[in-house]
Amino acid sequence: MATMYDFAIVGGGIVGLSTGMALTERFPNARILVLEKEASWAEHQTGHNSGVIHSGIYYKPGSFKARFAREGSRSMTEFCQKHGIKHEICGKVIVATKQEELPLLDNLYERGLQNELAIKKITAEELKEIEPHVNGLAAIHVPMAGIVNYKQVAEKFAEIIEQNGGDLRLNTRVERTLEKGDSVEIETTQGTFQARFMINCAGLHSDRVAKKTGIKTDVKILPFRGEYYELKPEKRYLVKHLIYPVPNPAFPFLGVHYTRMIDGRVDAGPNAVLSFKREGYKKTDINLKDLAEALSYAGLWKMAGKFWKEAIHEYARSFSKARFVKSLQELIPEIQADDLIPTHAGVRAQALKSDGSLVDDFYIVPGKNSIHVCNAPSPAATASIQIGKYVAERVQEKVN
């Protein structure tokens, strides 16, 4: 007879693995299963992100994102220190380059204070001391921001789950799930598994796993590709820390910025364009099923009606290096096209409601014998330890 697991987690990204780790701590005698369709852990959002340890400054006070990013920044740093994972608390600056951005910068500063962050408003002269090559009228200094390789963090989470007796299965794609009575049946490419409770952390496919389980969420995952350039090694001196523009408060993306990576590289980007495949890391990647599903969703067209100007701008940057460079020059005027070489892209799983509104917080939906993490884009990597603990608490409430 097949093993009856206490908890089965679908998805081996940083959120799924953090949840697994939290469950092994909260239920030390439980039988825990983690299912991942890829051949290694953290292959998608986790393995393609910018590696930033976020502070939580951008997010609505009291929201999951604000709370979990603030707390997660500390817990992620402590985890890296404890386990010898290379990281750096380098700090970042959020820079206003135009007069009309100054009120937005003030609003962001107030939000940061409401989120209980030890940030500082700085003048153009003080900015030059921190980032000599940056053009700015004023900025916010966020000293607690940092950098790390989140794939290494996720692999450590997996190691801890295994040490605590968890069963880890790679190359195991979930095909169907069925809640029945007091358990969940999970059909995969490697056989059928039984669990008393299932946690859906499938990222780019989380809405599909929820739907397969009979959960109605009123959201569709839209994949947004973020494309990056990398500074040539001889130009890395232009960036000392993390350099961000003032974001458009109506748009859920942070704008093109400069990110020092833990391996010494400096990335510039990303833009944000709708991908024609849920795991579409190249412009040429198209999946007809994914594309048809997105285009037939009324929420996409309602969103497009609101953001069509921004969408045109983002696609123009995608296909024109000159436009991309122009955006980057707003922050560092010295940057030239020859200083940049194309590098990796990431895909953000962004939940969209049927009314065309983007889900702007982590979105966690309960089922009968399941919980579904249906929106966990950035800053989910920073917040992953807190998300895992939160989900484990909700699981305990459900199973007790």
Indicate the topology.
Blueprint lengths: L3 E7 L3 H13 L5 E4 L16 E2 L10 H20 L3 E2 L3 E5 L5 H13 L5 E4 H7 L7 E5 L3 E3 L1 H14 L3 E3 L4 E7 L2 E6 L2 E10 L5 H7 L6 E13 L10 E4 L11 E4 L5 E4 L3 E2 L13 H8 L2 H22 L1 H9 L10 E14 L9 E4 L3 E6 L4 H20 L1
Parallel strand pairs: 1-2, 1-12, 2-9, 5-14, 12-20
Antiparallel strand pairs: 3-8, 4-8, 5-7, 6-7, 10-11, 11-12, 13-16, 13-17, 13-18, 15-16, 19-20
Helix pairs in contact: 1-5, 1-10, 2-10, 8-9
Give a written overview of the molecule:
By secondary structure, the protein is of the alpha+beta class. The chain has two domains: 4-88 and 144-399, FAD/NAD(P)-binding domain (3-Layer(bba) Sandwich), CATH 3.50.50; 92-143, no CATH class. Helix content is 33%, strand content 27%. The protein has ten helices and 20 strands. It has helices at 14-26, 64-83, 102-114, 124-130, 150-163, 206-212, 288-295, 298-319, 321-329, 380-399; strands spanning 4-10, 32-35, 52-53, 87-88, 92-96, 120-123, 138-142, 146-148, 167-169, 174-180, 183-188, 191-200, 219-231, 242-245, 257-260, 266-269, 273-274, 340-353, 363-366, 370-375. Strands 1, 2, 9, 10, 11, 12, 19 and 20 form an eight-stranded mixed beta sheet that branches. Strands 13, 15, 16, 17 and 18 form a five-stranded antiparallel beta sheet that branches. Strand 19 (363-366) and strand 20 (370-375) form a beta hairpin. Helix 2 packs across helix 10 (380-399) and helix 8 crosses helix 9. The longest helix has 22 residues, at 298-319. It is globular. The chain starts with a strand and ends with a helix.
